[in-house]
């Protein structure tokens, strides 16, 4: 028997909570917080996914899963009101005794996590980390990499779209400019501070999931080529890797990866 307590200890080894910024919501979000009770809960099936959506919960029930591991929490901030969408998810979790555990910035930052997975998939050589500050915290959120061969932004964008299986990307920069030193941070992994730090470390190209208008303007002013390859695509690859790791680390437990696809559709004129 593998208990919920043992799975949580394993997850904390894989993605140490100390690597998450202090205000981040990680760990067991739905389930008993008492270790003595966790030791009595057997985990036979685990599902790994990006978001604890209603569809993910239904899939968990169908596969008789009693632990879901997600990257994004069900509640990202303290809440005083539960609307219908969340209520249905909670009803399923409580009725079928499904626990939800969150690995967020700790899984982004840890060696072998989302940032390293993204660099590996894009065939980049990691040479350094890109730290992010959260108050007094400093965590190695992103990775700084070198390309393996000479290429320009146009070719690099084609590589990103092919490797991450996306049909389009947003970018800042000129297509004929050379790409040499690349920062990678999944999800909403860019802000003004990170762009300035990337510039200080010699980064000329920055790959993330999504970016804002003001970040695009700053990247342009700094001479950094900025690539947005969607929040979903840049993070789901790391969650899939986590499912593989858990299969190896917990051979007695059946591990499933649930991929719902991106939560949007594309319209091309």
Question: What do you see in this structure?
Answer:
- This protein has 269 residues and is an alpha/beta fold.
- The chain has 2 domains: 4-104, 3-Layer(aba) Sandwich (Udp-n-acetylmuramoylalanyl-d-glutamate--2,6- Diaminopimelate Ligase, Chain: A, domain 1); 111-233, NIF3 (NGG1p interacting factor 3)-like (Udp-n-acetylmuramoylalanyl-d-glutamate--2,6- Diaminopimelate Ligase, Chain: A, domain 1, 3-Layer(aba) Sandwich), CATH 3.40.1390.
- The chain is built from 10 helices and 11 strands.
- The strands form 2 sheets. A 6-stranded mixed sheet has the order 5-6-8-9-10-7.
- Strand 2, helix 3 and strand 3 (67-70) form a beta-alpha-beta unit.
- Helix 3 (54-62) packs parallel to helix 4, helix 6 (114-121) crosses helix 10 (231-249) and helix 8 (192-200) runs parallel beside helix 9.
- The N and C termini lie far apart (55 Å).
Question: Which keywords apply here?
Answer:
269 residues, alpha/beta, Udp-n-acetylmuramoylalanyl-d-glutamate--2,6- Diaminopimelate Ligase, Chain: A, domain 1, 2 domains, 6-stranded mixed sheet, 5-stranded mixed sheet, 10 helices, elongated
Topology:
Blueprint: H1 4-14, E1 27-30, H2 35-38, E2 45-49, H3 54-62, E3 67-70, H4 84-95, E4 99-102, H5 105-109, H6 114-121, E5 125-134, E6 137-152, H7 153-164, E7 170-172, E8 178-184, H8 192-200, E9 205-208, H9 213-222, E10 225-228, H10 231-249, E11 254-257
Parallel strand pairs: 2-3, 2-11, 3-4, 8-9, 9-10
Antiparallel strand pairs: 1-4, 5-6, 6-8, 7-10
